[in-house]
DNA sequence: AACCCGGGGGG
DNA sequence: CCCCCAGGGTT
């Protein structure tokens, strides 16, 4: 199969099978850009409602640039990889200040923006401006390693560069927008990680993995490291007027710019109650009494997992200071939903607002 | 090159 | 339980 046949078969299949998506067919480069940031390491179904909400809140790059970071993070709450939201917001300001609010059309220029790497630069310039830059994402890696029978580790930079070269060689310069999206669509719905449906594939006749029955072993990925597990104690300090203390995480930390109930890792030989009291002493400079466990929950982050023990606390002495956070604030229970929280803390806020399901309760 | 960074869905 | 997902930034 030559490059023309490849492209013809692929695009023909795409015309007949492409799924409907809110950003598909969209001409506004800003919306295409937002969709591509949201889709980084995120499934279409998960991103879709966030995209609709985000665009309704920030219809243009100017609206986004003028928004407060807290509003942007609130719109991103629950989607994960929050640096995406911070970088998107930052890049919007750059566009308004230095680019008259317009995304640059060239790969070399657009990749300078925060949060735009090789994938997103190729995606936006091809889809919004019809530039022949080939995208390489997880889908394309799977499709092309199988198609060309690449058996090396797909985690390595060398293999990714090989795949990028294949994609660049294959891209249809007359229709790069559809070519790129068709490659990803094919990887997503036909050339799936397990049980690929090769009988549906428009390029099966040229596929090495299909012909040699190697779709189970290609792409090859070296083993991932095991995720460590931590036990975390967090304290919910309730003042006499009923307000609760929340803290704003440092800008450059994990989950930066989101709010939380202060706490930290349990040490060896330490009761979890002591963990909570020690952590709050360290982070707020106060003495507290952890008097009642509110709930426990398990949560998995990208590189570790936790069991979180949440304790209700009373202030014994001292005035809380933001020693390890940007800011601390006393808030009513019904005000908690105004603030962006990471998932594990979000579960706590819902319990505290009486909206918890209770299945994780102790 | 290695590591860090969320959360959800599917097998 | 594991893997994967329209990756990017930092060191």
From TrEMBL:
Lineage top rank: taxon: Bacteria
Swiss-Prot/TrEMBL cofactor(s): [4Fe-4S] cluster; Mg(2+)
Binding residues for 8-oxo-dGTP: 249, 260-263, 345
Pfam families found in the cross-reference section: HHH (PF00633), HhH-GPD (PF00730), NUDIX_4 (PF14815)
Secretion signal span: none
Residue numbers binding Mg(2+): 263, 283
EC numbers: 3.2.2.31
Catalytic EC class: hydrolase
Residues annotated as domain Nudix hydrolase: 227-354
Molecular function in Gene Ontology: 4 iron, 4 sulfur cluster binding; 8-oxo-7,8-dihydroguanine DNA N-glycosylase activity; 8-oxo-7,8-dihydroguanosine triphosphate pyrophosphatase activity; adenine/guanine mispair binding; metal ion binding; oxidized purine DNA binding; purine-specific mismatch base pair DNA N-glycosylase activity
One example of a Gene Ontology biological process annotation: mismatch repair
Entries under Gene3D superfamilies matching the protein: Helix-hairpin-Helix base-excision DNA repair enzymes (C-terminal), Hypothetical protein, domain 2, Nucleoside Triphosphate Pyrophosphohydrolase
Keywords per UniProt: 4Fe-4S, DNA damage, DNA repair, Glycosidase, Hydrolase, Iron, Iron-sulfur, Magnesium, Metal-binding
Entry annotated with the keyword Metal-binding: yes
Catalytic activity: Hydrolyzes free adenine bases from 7,8-dihydro-8-oxoguanine:adenine mismatched double-stranded DNA, leaving an apurinic site
Function statement: Adenine glycosylase active on G-A mispairs. MutY also corrects error-prone DNA synthesis past GO lesions which are due to the oxidatively damaged form of guanine: 7,8-dihydro-8-oxoguanine (8-oxo-dGTP).
Protein family per UniProt: Belongs to the Nth/MutY family.
PANTHER family tied to this protein: ADENINE DNA GLYCOSYLASE
Protein name, entry field: Adenine DNA glycosylase
Organism for this UniProt entry: Gracilimonas sediminicola
